[in-house]
From TrEMBL:
Lineage top rank: taxon: Bacteria
Organism of origin: Sphingobacterium psychroaquaticum
UniProt xrefs under Pfam families: Exo_endo_phos
GO cellular component, one term: membrane
GO MF terms, alphabetically ordered: catalytic activity
PANTHER family in the cross-refs: CALCOFLUOR WHITE HYPERSENSITIVE PROTEIN PRECURSOR (PTHR14859), PGAP2-INTERACTING PROTEIN (PTHR14859:SF1)
The protein's name in its UniProt record: Exodeoxyribonuclease-3
Amino acid sequence: MNIMEKVKHLYKTGSWRTWTLLACFSLVLWTACSKKDVELPDDGGEKEPEELTLPDTLKIMSYNILEGMKNDKANNYNKFVEWVRSYNPDVLALQEVNGFNQKALEKLALRYGHKYVITNLKSTDNYPVALTSKYPIDARRRVTLHVSHGAIFARLKDTDLNIVVTHFWPQAYWYKVGDNLGNDYRLQEANVILDSTIRKFPNEQDWVFMGDFNSISRKDYDPTVTGNSYAALDEIEKAGYMDAIHHLHGYKSNGTAVYDFQYPGRRIDFIFGTPSVLKRVTKAMPIYDDFTKVYSDHPPMLFHLIL
C-alpha cells in the first residue's frame, strides 16, 4: 500500500487526527525529496583551525605575575595584555596564576594571541603554574605530589623541545614556622621534578626548565651575602642544565657577569636549558621596564631559541 492509499484508508476509518498528521508528513517528505540539489553556503559547517607555522626563532618568557596579576585586575588586565603583546612571546610560562581556571586563562591568553593553554590547578594550593602558547603544546605530565606549587611538563608540537615550568616553595620553614627546613623542601621539589622529567627520559636531549625557584645560584652570589642555600639549583645543574643568561653573559663568580639583577633583591627566577638547547640560544635577559616595576615583584626572564 503506497502513501496515498494509506491516507485514503485512514480517512475512511475516521481517524481524522492521524490522517492530518500523515498528510503533513507526506507534504514535508515530498518537499524534501524535490530539493535534491540544495547548495550550502560557503561558510556552512565547522572549519579546521588554522595551523600556524613554527617560527625560525622561538621566543620564550617566564614570569611570576604576582597573585594572578592582581595589580591590573581592576583594569581587566588591559595593561598586562598590552605589555605581553609588546614583547610577543611564542611561549609564556606563568607562576602565581591565582584565581584563574582553565577557561578564564584561555580567555585572557587569547587577548594576547595565545590559543593553547595548560593549567595545573591543585585543590591544596592557590598559587598554580601555567603555560600559554601561540603554537600547539602537548601536556606530558602535571606534577602535583610532594611539591608546593607543582610543575607542568609539556612538549612543543612537531619538535623535540621539552618545556617544564615550576614554582618552588618560598618560605624559610617547611612543616612549621621556625623549623628552618625550607631549603630541604626546595631540594626535594627539585628532585621530584627532575625525576619526573629529564631523569625519566635520558635519551631526550632538548629541555627548557624555568620558573620562580625561590633559590639562588652560586654563580650569582657569594655565600656570605645570603642565608639561602645553593642546594636546589646545584641539583638542577648536576642534572645537565645551565641558566641561559649565565651561558650567554657570564656570571659574578667568575667575574664576567653582564646583568645586575635589580629585584626582588636576589635573583631567584631562571630559564635553564640543556647543552643542545643552549647552543641555539641567541638572546637571554631579564626584563626591567616601567610595567614590570609596578605590576609584579619579579622580573620576567626572556630568551630566544633557534628551532
